[in-house]
């Protein structure tokens, strides 16, 4: 127990500065992650806009949920036909920045 208290005391006394290489690497990694999150948000918005603007998909676009992670778009929700399901997938694939589309749309009929 005494060793544990001593170690924690020494650890608490160590200076932590942003100039240390470890902290610099973590800061760089965090900023890359923020950039990826922002890019994925932009892709999600662009896919939503594209779905709403496509004349074949727009009537049911409000029922489609869009999630994006690392440029991979996931479509979930309900559509009326198999054609509608694949039309939505094709529209999403056409959006710049999309690496892949996972189509988890369910057909209601």
Keyword list:
Histidine-containing Protein, Chain: A; 3-stranded mixed beta sheet; alpha+beta; 109 residues
Give the helix level as a range of percent.
40-55%
Mean pLDDT: 82
Structural class: alpha+beta
> CATH class, please?
Alpha Beta
Query: Mind summarizing the main beta sheet?
Result: 3 strands, mixed
Low-confidence runs = 4-24
From the 3D coordinates, which CATH architecture would you assign? 2-Layer Sandwich
Total DSSP helices:
3
N-to-C SSE series?
HHEEHE
CATH topology: Histidine-containing Protein, Chain: A
Count the E strands. 3
Task: State Rg.
Answer: 23 Å
Strand content: 15-25%
Number of domains: 1
Q: How would the global form be characterised? A: elongated
Spatial order of the strands forming the largest sheet: 1-2-3
- What is the rounded distance between the termini? 67 Å
General description of the model:
The chain has helices at 2-13, 21-53, 82-93; strands at 64-69, 72-79, 100-107. With 109 residues, it is an alpha+beta fold. 19% of the residues are buried.
Briefly say what this structure is.
This protein has 109 residues and is an alpha+beta fold.
Layout: helices, strands, pairs:
Elements: H1 2-13, H2 21-53, E1 64-69, E2 72-79, H3 82-93, E3 100-107
Parallel strand pairs: 2-3
Antiparallel strand pairs: 1-2
